[in-house]
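Aim 2 progress. For Circadian input-output histidine kinase CikA, the working sequence is reproduced below.
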Amino acid sequence: MKQLIIPDKVQKEMLTDFMIMGETKGLIGGYCEDEFPVCYANEEMARMLGYDAVEELIEAIDGKVINTIHPDDREQVIKDIGDEYYEGLTYETTYRMPRKDGSCFWTVDKGKVVQTEDGKLAIISACYDMTSFVERHKKLEEKNMLSQATIDNIPGGYHRCSLEEGHPFLYISNRFLAILGWTREEIRTIFDNKFDNMLHPDDRNLSSDYVTRILDTRGHGSEKDQIYRLLGKDGYHWVTDATTLVKSGNQTFFQGNITDFTDFVKAKEKKEQEIELQREIIEGLGKEYFSVLAVELDKDRVLSYRESGENGKIISDFCRKCGNRWSKIIPSYAETMVSDNTNGEFENQLGLETLRSQEKDYSMTYEFKLETGINYHQVRVAFVKKKDGTRMAVVGTRNIDSLIKKERMQEEKLKKAYVAAENANKAKTEFLNNMSHDIRTPMNVILGYNQLMKSQLTESKQLDYQKKIEQSGKLLLAIINNVLDMARIESGKIKVDENYERVGEVVDEIISTFSSEAEEKEIHLSGSMKVTHRNILCDGTKIREIYVNLVSNAMKYTPRGGNVTITVEELPCEKEGYIKVKSEIKDTGIGMSKEYLPTLFEPFSREQNTTTRRIGGTGLGMPIVKKMVDLMGGSIEVASELGKGTVFTFTLMHKIADRKFYSQKTEAAETSEMGKI
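Predicted structure tokens for this construct:
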């Protein structure tokens, strides 16, 4: 390969800028392009790398300067040079250069960007072999400083720092890294390789003062270790730092050793928090409790923290009388000052062994004896730990007599109010029951005579009057029946009476009952059924009443041309011998608002709008349905939307009728019918 020659202009610049301490340097240049294609190399560079000629070197590195840099160092070298190239740019970097035999040596590379004769930008590097410097440095270390093995075995974290701003690290021991959890690379990238950047912001002034004191004494003072926080991977660590100023040859630097005592600080903080908590508990109790005692459970000894007023003095006197022994205080105080009703519980709850066995705080109330009667006192027991780790019970006593008596007065008032409400409700129910019976009898008579009168009338006007009397009478009778049903339900007189029924027959009856009304209003009334076990035992009367109320409501609020659908479906039942029957009554009527739905099943509740005001009703139908469904152990749900309609769904569980049972019923019915023929 042809020997590359550097232009005279460039050679002069190199001689001016890169001659360092008269040493001979290896020179190599590369164009400012990807991987720096070689544009120049001298014989000294070839010799430094172990090659006999420049051509051999160029061939070995594939014509690329980047291949003269150890792979692990290339990223850092490129970063040191920078991203932007311009004529006159200079830099200095350090890296390892691989020799022909595979070994490496550390080099200091001082470079400059120049313009070549062909107009391109190129980097010309002067590389200095640092091998002799490293050897001298090692000898200096062996002579004046701790060996690497010794450093790595120091219990603390050994480190050396420069005196420059931020105190860049010159050396970090493995123990230093282990304490804080970082790697050398992480410290270099995250903290810019500076000690000060690892300090807690609040502690940097401490470190600054420490450094100033060390410099003032030039390393000959007897400065105490400094305490501050250094950031580790798992958070801040409390450390003590013993740092001195060291001068080695032409170098002056800080040499320090950190000791991690984070666990000690945390334990101390925790203990201080516990002590503060104990103080707060005692002070907190002391504000409203007339007596606050601390019971040392291991020693059976009592310390008095507060005795306030006459009641506090009484307890304090018992403590002194019993030699401040808790095991003697409690029985003596219970016998003398606690009522017979509560002294047993008092001794049981507050005895020494009970306190020793308890883990959680608790309270108890007792009756304190007075000459004029009793007062109610409350004892609060809270457990805390002493500095030596032993448990202590803080026992506070306060007077809650007014509170207890006030609560009891309120309870008594509530009981009286409840009894009065129950009596009033009972009287109302009895009144409605009697009134309904009294009104229903003459009402039936009126309707009966009205029906007889109908056959005697011929004039249309008279027939119209008769029809209105009949409609009003039926409405009034329905209201009376609803009131009577509600009264019977509330009085508890209504019971479930189960008999044999066929599911299909009940639904057919309901459809038949409302078919005329549906035809008159041009409403499409239909039913469907998916039931396997049709023979059941149930209260047919109440089920029919539920259907009547729901279908009647649907018919009432569905306009002409609408639909009312009854769907009956058998559901699986977990109880053997029983079935669940789900019934759904769906209409395309006026619907109900979401705001009204929660009050739907309340007595006398009706939605107030222009449509419902034109339709009569008592507001008792739905409450009766709900109570009957509840009485039979079922559930009922409703979904509705204004202008779209309503769906009522109720589910009841029924016992499947035994085949023999309903066969006998069927035979009996057939025999009865034959007797009538």
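DSSP finds 20 helices and 22 strands in the chain. This observation will guide construct design in the next reporting period.
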